[in-house]
Amino acid sequence: MVAGFVIVLFVTSNFNQLFADVSTALKTSVRLIVAVFFVFLLDFIISKNNLTKKNGYAIMTFGLLFGLFPEALRYSDLLFANLFVLFALRRLISLQTNLHTKKKFFDAGFWVMMATLFHFWSVLFFAVVIVALIYHSKNNLKNVIIPFVGVATVILLLVAYNIIVHDTYIKPTNFSRYASVDYSVYNSSEFILELTVLFTSLVWTLIYFFKNIQDKNKKLKPSFFLIAWSSVIAILIAIIAPVKNGSEFIFLFAPFSIIMANYIEVVSEKWFKEVFISLLIIVPIISLLL
Fold first, then answer.
1. What are 185-189's contacts with CB under 8 Å, separation 24+?
2. Taking the complete model, does pTM exceed 0.85, yes or no?
3. Where are the domains of the chain?
4. pLDDT tens digits along 112-137
5. Residues 33-67: tens digit of each pLDDT
6. CA 198, CA 213: separation in Å to the nearest integer?
7. Cβ count near 215 (within 10 Å)
């Protein structure tokens, strides 16, 4: 159902590109596939690692966040960067099994660096890798080197590609380090409403999330800390993002969805749950009317 909602939202937001020339249509179709894949990937990460109870709150929130910020569906670089960040987060969260630890750290470093090629500030998610090292490799200093090997692997592959295709080692466009602290675009009534709902919900649920991590299963605690810190990194990326039109919050969608789901699961007042969910449904509709 959520995948269907994302498809409808994507088609609505990218209708002209889908039915333009063949090249544009193919590129747009790839973005659609990636966007829909997000839903199944997040569902897999959650169910595989027991991050929520058996319900659809997280996936529902994830889909509604795309409804809140449909611009996130328009940029291939952000979609691919977020995809690779999710791959990295998946590997870090699965460290709770204590299996194939070295391979998972390598993969995490590799995927974060891959994300950096598409959106430079994704490199900040390497901080989450460091946090994972602190939790899972306190007594094994060898593991500290492994994520950097993953990073080096991507750089070597990039250099090899550039030499073969462009006859150079590194192109300036490989790591475009643009940032902006101009928030004037947020002065519109549409953004004020959307950001108020987003950050009110995030702060409220994040405070609860940090407070209640201590009550989680000991084995799962590091995973929940990684999710919480991922949301913090996502906010930092949004703050310095060069383009500010709502798409900059895409990195927040997955961690926030998990945080929100954990909050909704334990709220005893049914009406309070409905308020949070209703806001995420109603606000995009109101924004269209503003």
1. 185/244, 185/245, 186/244, 188/290, 189/290
2. yes
3. 2-289
4. 999 999 999 999 999 999 999 988 87
5. 999 999 999 999 999 998 988 888 899 999 989 98
6. 22
7. 8
